[in-house]
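Suppose you are handed only these lines of text.
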Amino acid sequence: MSAILPPSERLWWKHPLDRVEGTWIAIALAWCLTMFFMMVGWHIYGKQNLSTETYKTTPEKFSAKAQAMVDKYTVRTETADKIPVVAPPAGSDVYIVARLWNFWPILELEKDKTYRLHLTAMDYNHGFSLQPANINIQVVPGYEHVVTVTPNQSGTYSVVCNEYCGIGHHTMVGRVYVK
Ligand code: CUA
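From them, the structure of the protein bound to dinuclear copper ion can be written out as follows.
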């Protein structure tokens, strides 16, 4: 019998399981289970997958909160688009809006202080990729993603959109400062 021809005996599934076949099924099953429990283990021990909280929101509700923070704590503006740089108090709730095609505003955080970082998308799916920390979160419209972050290294972090979101996708970048 060859793999490209139909089996000579039609009821092939009634044949006893070959030892090699059984071994491969056992190996595949063991590997499936290993991979499955790796997901759980990696979350706990890998310190890479973030525990995000997710809530429903609307663009209006979210931008009101982001705007309130920007109105209160803006220290300067940067880039040709005059993106506000916001230095909110240590330990507060901070907001970043993702939309075609920027992240708004720029945050200036303090090292070793814990913040609640809220993210949403105003229009389409975007990605929040924080480099070089290698944090990666999908930002979905209609949902508020909350991450508890404690920046432990000062410097300038780049935010890159990593979900293809149209013609300006490659220009969709942002910034986070840690002092
Ligand atoms: Cu936003 Cu790609």
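What can we learn from it? The mean pLDDT is 91. The helical segments are 19-45, 59-73.
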